[in-house]
Hints:
CATH topology: NADH Oxidase
CATH superfamily: NADH Oxidase
Radius of gyration: 18 Å
Strand order of the largest sheet: 1-2-4-3
Helix content: 40-55%
Shape: globular
Bound molecules: flavin mononucleotide
Low-confidence stretches: none
Structural class: alpha+beta
Distance between the termini: 35 Å
CATH class: Alpha Beta
Number of domains: 1
Mean pLDDT: 96
Amino acid sequence: MELxxxxxQRRSCRAFRDDxxxxxxxxxxxxxxxxxxxxxxLQPWEITVVMGRELERLRRRLLQARSERAVSCSPGSxxxxxxxxxxxxxxxxxxxxxxxxxxxxxVNAFVEEGSCRFYGAPVALILGMDGAFSSQRLLxxxxxxxxxxLAAEDLGLATCPVGLxxxxxDEIKEFLNIPxxxxxxxxxxxxxxxETSPLDRFRTPREPLDRFVRWYV
Length: 217
Ligand SMILES: Cc1cc2nc3c(=O)[nH]c(=O)nc-3n(C[C@H](O)[C@H](O)[C@H](O)COP(=O)(O)O)c2cc1C
């Protein structure tokens, strides 16, 4: 697949088919993502792959945690965000909210519950790194994620990054025996897109260049 095609067609998937993904394909995906650059080539990413019955158990655990300690999808800001970001968020999720309202479902509840289920995907990846690293190294995990999402397209796999589950990092660490000194940075749902689901037909918009680029020439 052309790189440009992968970039243009990638979008987060929130409706997966049940079909399993061959572990060899997951391995290939991670090998390709591992070609990502990192500062000093430290390759700080650490990945836990969860599939099959273990993933069913993890889903149940996260849903249980959510029922006891609900968290909302938040942008994770240090201070109140400028209104422009709230507008972008609303614009991005408006089509999904509209679709869900026809089924009398609330978009926030859908995303929060769906995230804890990894949207029914057959594979969940937990991306982490050693807690000894400074937050600077999150950049490297971000690049790894970018490579992963595009490499998945090439392998015919759909993905959804799932940051919400990090609110339950303690549960994830305990369940997956991730040592205390490691940080859980992100979850990623991986699988095959359910093309028949109406919940998966929308694309999020992007700002025009002049909103985020300044030139000095
Ligand atoms: C770091 C990160 C965390 C995210 N966390 C979630 C999440 O918890 N739940 C969810 O449904 N989508 C999550 N997303 C997906 C974003 O909502 C999505 O990327 C964004 O709306 C743009 O849409 P697109 O990916 O379809 O282009 C996350 C994306 C990123 C990059």
